[in-house]
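Limitations
The structure tokens in this dataset are predictions for the assembled complex, not deposited experimental models. Users should treat interface geometry with appropriate caution, especially where small molecules or nucleic acid strands are included. An illustrative entry is reproduced here so readers can see what is and is not provided.
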Amino acid sequence: MALKGLDIFKLSPKKNCKECGSPTCMAFSMKVAQGAADISACPYFSEEAKATLMEATAPPMKTIKVGAGEKEIALGGETVLFRHEKTFVSKTRYAVALCSGMDDAEIEAKLANISKVDYDRIGERMYVEMVYVNYDPAAGADKYLDLVKKAAGLNRVLVLGCQDAEVAKAAVELVKADKPILNGADASNYEAMSAVATEAGVVLGVTGANMEETYETIKKLEALGNKNLIVDVGVTSIKEAYKTAVLLRRTAIKDGDRSCGYPSLVQANVLAKGDLHMQAALASLFTMKYGSVIVMEEMNYAQALPLYGLRQNVFTDPQKPMKVEPGIYAINGADENSICLTTVDFALTYFVVSGELERSGVPCNLIISDAGGLSVLTAWAAGKLSANTIAKYFAEADIEGKVKNRTLVIPGKVAVLKGEIEAKLPGWNIVVGPTEAVQLVKFLKDMQG
Amino acid sequence: MPFNAKSGKFNASINVVEIGTGDKKIKIGGENVLPFYTFDAPVENAPKVGIEITDFGLEHEPDCVKKYYEGCATVVDMAKKAAEMEGVDFLSIRLEGGDPNGANKSTEELVQLVKEVAEAVDLPLVVCGSKNVEKDAELLAKAAEALDGKNAVLLSAREENYKAVGAAAGLAYKQLVGAESAVDINLAKQLNVLLTQLGVDGKSIVMNVGSAAAGYGFEYVVSTMDRIKAAALGQGDTTLQMPIITPVASEVWGVKEAIASEADMPEWGDQEERGIDMEVETAAAVLASGSNAVILKHPVSVATVSKMIKALM
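Predicted assembly:
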């Protein structure tokens, strides 16, 4: 709940000493309330008052950090419910599950598979960032500890799924420097689990049979002083898990209840055990609605390609367009003699155009110049796509040295540029292309025929 | 202190639209909460799943879809088979062949086919046009006439041809009008207003507010749908309270992740799996954003998405 300036003023020293840089304590309090000044600028606030204020002015949803060093990942910290209000802060992370109850061959296969999906999409590395290591009591503690060691070798952030505090303690001890998540606290064991997690300084995962029970356990953990938490939305049913994920986020953001303001973890691998397509559906659903970590039985390319693309879309800044790198993109096995086309670096334009070019089957070079990440008409209107910018890019990137073909197709929407481009790029045959990408297939076929 | 959730129920609700006739008819819309927020208030009508076939029959289908229609000689055979598949609530026939820049099949030929399909199955029917606005003006108007009494959805009326499609489907033959706009809340609203000014009952309009495959500018789809639901429910905007129907199949079965062969992309693995997951994940995402119905192609996608909807209701 945001504090008003007056509430802060009541706690202030009321000395009007100006040491903070503001003329009066009242003015300073107002600035603090608006977030324009930091409370620590005043040397006279009592520690108590500071603590009260820090608590009251903290964001409704905590940012929880897991993993160490380069692998560190921030979860949560969201400030809105919908992406059109403000950018979502911490993207959803995906984990693959291992279990000590699996036989050795299965474990080896899973370990080998986890690093398979690893590719780049518009400047973002797409891979399985976390590994969930589940404890099966029937297989014994030793086997679990072995598995934890093996999983640590994958160099991913670990989630240790274990409800037995003693085994958990031994497991956390092995990898605590890597800051794993310890997932396994519930109403029955929260005290012991919390002790293990706080002692090792790791994030604790808490769950319950339903939202109400989970909430009570969170309250109890907070009473113990543990606020380094992540909430497992549970495995009772898909419906209950969805309810928990939505209510946590909404109650934290809309109603300012900080006991709901923790990142969430979704075990899609348990909710849809054995059904990989259903897990794909759930991964998509919970990427949309408030899952911070989603655990899958495996991550293959079929699941990953749409999922990582979706995540990249959903977690973009609504005011900042996605851009692709300028360059020559060879399509359908194009070489230096293949026809050239050019368009802007707006990611959506690039994807639609390159998709249609691929569909045409015609080898061609798609030349992307820097147009500020705007669409064709917007870039043209803003002066970021003109004969000058294209000619400048051609010179900078030495296009003429790299490509021998001298036919360049320009977007139909900027047909007016034809003459100017011809003047700036002597020796090139400038052709006006279609106005819509979807007409490219026919256009290229007609051109060939 | 026990947890007390505040209800996120709204005072306004989405229109209920009934599609089809008889035992198999379906209802979409009616909710006064965000998608699947059954904990805020009961959601009476679960989102529905349709299966798509086209006038080309098996000719243009990927092999992984063809195998499910083994033994089907005609489009009508396919329609019958599709209607029996698990999780199918309605049938969608896309008249791709009508496109003057493609096969340019005649309106008579296509309307005859629609008629035969409608006679062969008792499922609610959605007729999708050729995507060419001039051709669709004629094609969908004639289809509306041919389907008299079937209470079918004609998808779609667009800004360029809403008069022809709206007048025939909405006024003359009392079918349902699918209003299609391109991923923008203002365009969606404007088209609904234009259609109602024409005299079409707002309660017989469903919207296709545009879609994209996951990863292909899908953020616009999410934000458009989020904002439409916010306006419809939160502000009680009656010009946006129409249920949303999203053709997913026609978006996803064109992107390379779904259709590139395994020979071309060996590290990506099996093409069928990729197609299914692209369809399933896109469908799950549009449903989470507020679609009241989705149109899919692969039978496994249909079954999976239908199962997910049931699990959430």
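Some entries come with short summary sentences. For this one: Chain B touches chain A through 54 residues (CB under 8 Å).
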